[in-house]
């Protein structure tokens, strides 16, 4: 998710919330698929959180820069 210049802050925040919900759904799936394989779940969680954090920071900077 990369905000476009014409996007308004409410739309960007809604997109970010939607992305967080999708990530939570994906993580639930990871726990079911890996069935207790803690290392694999941890690796998957780390990747998803890093991507989400990067998008969140980018999005919030775009909002503040307006």
From TrEMBL:
Top-rank taxon, per record: Bacteria
Name recorded for this polypeptide: Uncharacterized protein
């Amino acid at each position: 998710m990369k905000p476009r210049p014409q996007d308004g802050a409410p739309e960007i925040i809604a997109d970010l919330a939607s992305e967080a919900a999708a990530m939570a759904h994906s993580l639930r799936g990871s726990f079911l698929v890996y069935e207790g394989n803690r290392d694999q779940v941890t690796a998957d969680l780390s990747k998803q959180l890093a991507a989400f954090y990067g998008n969140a920071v980018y999005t919030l900077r775009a909002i503040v820069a307006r």
